[in-house]
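Dear U.,

Please find below the material for section 3 of the report. The protein was modelled together with S-adenosylmethionine; I have listed the sequence and SMILES used, followed by the predicted complex structure.
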Amino acid sequence: MDESSIAKSSIEWRQGQPYANAFQDVYFSSDNGLLETEYVFLQGNQLSARWQHLSTKTFTIAETGFGTGLNFLCAVKLWLASAPNDAVLHFISLEKYPLNLADLTKALQLWPELQALSTPFLAEYAQLLSTSAINNTQTVMLFDNRVRLTLIIDDATAGLKSLNLANFNNASTTIDAWFLDGFSPAKNPDMWQVALFEQMARLSNLTTTFATFTSAGAVRRGLIANDFVVKKQAGFGKKREMLFGQFLHDK
Ligand SMILES: C[S@@+](CC[C@H](N)C(=O)[O-])C[C@H]1O[C@@H](n2cnc3c(N)ncnc32)[C@H](O)[C@@H]1O
């Protein structure tokens, strides 16, 4: 892929936090993005308990909307603290409008507590955006080979349609946990299309979970129509409710 063909994100900084002009939306909660990630995505997928009792050598997360990498780094932090040393976290993220290195660096400076993790990640970020990617996909190993990060620079649904986990030597060819991020469905309906939920079902197994910050009806209905059990709980910060749940249908 030619770097000039990558649609770069246009952001501004509002009170020190990244803001997407094109979507009129924030990258994370202005209340506390880090706590939001822990609450919505890590706890929403029960990752701490699952990783402490992990019986497989790989655990695969797929995320829609890599953004600043905050969700990724929070997941890595928990993984390194709780998962067995010989297991690999494969974190796959789909991002249509990647941040440039300067903006991403500035965004991650908001989290000094993640610096030990963000520094080695930032050293690889330019490579992840590099022009030679096959299928717009780049993979790097990080953190003493305990984490594999795959960044797919594409629309979430389009990227999932061509995703074949067997190409990564994954022990499993399905996703274990979904992080449904992305700007709010009202502001970004293109991402939250029915085909996205169909792809999620194609790539899920009986123990696959999902979590998302939104409780939008179209998202809930799309997940239910594709065999996910959908539950609601209080949302983070100003958000009234969020969704989480599990895939029901065995392949
Ligand atoms: C709220 S931000 C995600 C924040 C991110 N998870 C983090 O940890 O910083 C939403 C992200 O979704 C991306 N996005 C928007 N539409 C998309 C699409 N159709 N496919 C893939 N990514 C998309 C945006 O560029 C943005 O980076």
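For the text of the report, you could mention the following: The CA atoms of residues 29 and 36 lie 7 Å apart.

Regards,
Y.
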